[in-house]
């Protein structure tokens, strides 16, 4: 069966600066990941930009990416480093010249060391420093950008860095996670207005990470309600007053019994329950449709699936997941939801935060040691989809 998408539907892929560029001076530098790789040399993107552009161009008309705050701004309120500005501007110019639009993410989990030393996002007094960074990004890069995300997955960041303790600064406090989320919301509101002052027609939102939580028994119903409320609905309402569209990312189906069951924390348990999964989480593509519908009922704004993928080394498995996710998206559109585009994570394999580079999401394979790239069968499959604006399932 062939699924056709609307003529104005857009396709793309996504990466983040910290996960693809050699670490400069942010809080992840030197972090030892689960697979024992050190977060420093990631994928050599800053040395291979022209090569990477050739891959990016094969995957639709949109590239969602960020810039390294620590490399651009070496101290609080400092002017941007002009050599770094020129490097990014040249990259964006080349993308635009080849017909690729840039969706710029201002914050994607990585803060300069100077920001972290002053208590990072726990400290409300740090908000003006981020606003200054954002304002300089608007000045230097705004003319190359067609769409903005102020924050990537603020709920995932607050949870992992300040509640679960898996991300730096590895705090474990529900109160601190809530404070961080509040401060991110304040910063978003300010930066939203700054962008609109210069580019009033430019779409601005966040990437809201969504997870589909499901109770496996009666005792799990309250934990599932709380997880869904805090992670999905509460965060949405923090940012909702100033969002032009729902930017939704989705990866995880999380059954609870009453605690979350993942392949990371309880390897083999999902198999025992006969639940499909990748290397990280339960796999349930229908969960994406459920989460889109929930949020669309909350506010009928346009939707962009702004991150979506699967953690696997198997290209055939990735192809199968792309088909299944796109069928869910197509069905959701036919049910009346206004979905404008799909951005796959990720363009090439990168350094998967606290887990490391052996946890792969890329359409393009990256050698763990040489950083050499090679197109995968899944990459070729997705490139054909973006060219034809349709998928065979």
Question: How does this model look, in words?
Answer:
The protein is an alpha/beta fold and 393 residues long. The protein has 13 helices and 12 strands. An 8-stranded parallel barrel has the order 2-3-4-5-6-7-8-9, surrounded by 7 helices. Strands 1-12 form a two-stranded antiparallel sheet. It has a two-stranded antiparallel ribbon with strand order 10-11. Helix 12 runs parallel beside helix 13. The radius of gyration is 20 Å and the shape is globular. The termini are close together.
The number of helical elements comes to 13
Order of helices and strands: EEHHEHHEHHEHHEHEHHEHEEEHE
Largest sheet: 8 strands, parallel, barrel
Neighbour order of strands in the largest sheet: 2-3-4-5-6-7-8-9
Radius of gyration: 20 Å
Secondary structure: number of strands: 12
Estimated share of beta-strand residues: 15-25%
Structure in a nutshell:
With 393 residues, the chain is an alpha/beta fold. Helices cover 39% and strands 19% of the residues.
Could you outline the blueprint of secondary structure elements for this entry?
Elements (H helix, E strand, L loop, with lengths): L1 E3 L5 E5 L2 H4 L28 H8 L5 E5 L2 H4 L9 H16 L3 E7 L5 H5 L9 H15 L3 E8 L1 H9 L11 H25 L5 E12 L5 H19 L6 E11 L12 H4 L13 H13 L4 E6 L6 H20 L4 E7 L18 E3 L6 E3 L1 H12 L1 E3 L1
Parallel strand pairs: 2-3, 2-9, 3-4, 4-5, 5-6, 6-7, 7-8, 8-9
Antiparallel strand pairs: 1-12, 10-11
């Amino acid at each position: 069966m062939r699924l056709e998408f609307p003529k104005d539907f857009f396709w793309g892929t996504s990466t983040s600066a910290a996960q693809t560029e050699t670490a400069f001076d942010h809080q992840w530098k030197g972090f030892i990941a689960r697979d024992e790789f050190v977060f420093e040399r990631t994928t050599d993107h800053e040395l291979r930009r022209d090569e990477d552009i050739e891959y990016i161009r094969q995957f639709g008309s949109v590239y969602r990416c960020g810039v390294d705050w620590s490399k651009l701004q070496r101290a609080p309120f400092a002017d941007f480093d002009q050599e770094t500005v020129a490097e990014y501007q040249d990259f964006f110019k080349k993308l635009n010249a080849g017909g690729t639009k840039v969706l710029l993410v201002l914050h994607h989990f990585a803060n300069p060391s100077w920001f972290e030393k002053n208590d990072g996002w726990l400290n409300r007094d740090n908000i003006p420093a981020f606003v200054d960074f954002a304002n300089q990004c608007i000045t230097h890069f705004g003319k190359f950008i067609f769409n903005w995300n102020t924050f990537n997955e603020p709920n995932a960041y607050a949870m992992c860095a300040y509640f679960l303790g898996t991300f730096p600064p590895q705090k474990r406090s529900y109160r601190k996670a809530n404070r961080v989320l509040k401060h991110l919301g304040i910063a978003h509101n300010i930066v939203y207005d700054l962008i609109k002052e210069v580019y009033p027609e430019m779409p601005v939102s966040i990437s809201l990470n969504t997870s589909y939580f499901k109770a496996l028994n009666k005792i799990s119903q309250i934990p599932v309600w709380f997880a869904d409320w805090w992670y999905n609905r509460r965060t949405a309402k923090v940012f909702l007053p100033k969002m032009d569209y729902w930017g939704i990312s989705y990866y995880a189906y999380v059954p609870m019994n009453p605690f979350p069951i993942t392949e990371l924390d309880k390897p083999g348990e999902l198999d025992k329950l006969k639940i499909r999964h990748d290397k990280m989480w339960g796999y349930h593509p229908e969960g994406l449709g459920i989460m889109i519908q929930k949020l669309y009922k909350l506010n009928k704004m346009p939707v962009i699936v702004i991150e979506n993928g699967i953690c696997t080394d198997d290209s055939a498995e990735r192809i199968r997941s792309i088909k299944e996710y796109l069928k869910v998206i197509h069905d959701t559109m036919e049910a009346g939801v206004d979905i404008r585009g799909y951005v796959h994570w990720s363009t090439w394999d990168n350094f998967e935060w606290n887990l490391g580079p052996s946890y792969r999401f890329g359409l393009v394979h990256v050698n763990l040691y040489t950083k050499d790239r090679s197109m995968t069968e899944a990459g070729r499959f997705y490139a054909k989809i973006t060219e034809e604006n349709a998928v065979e399932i």
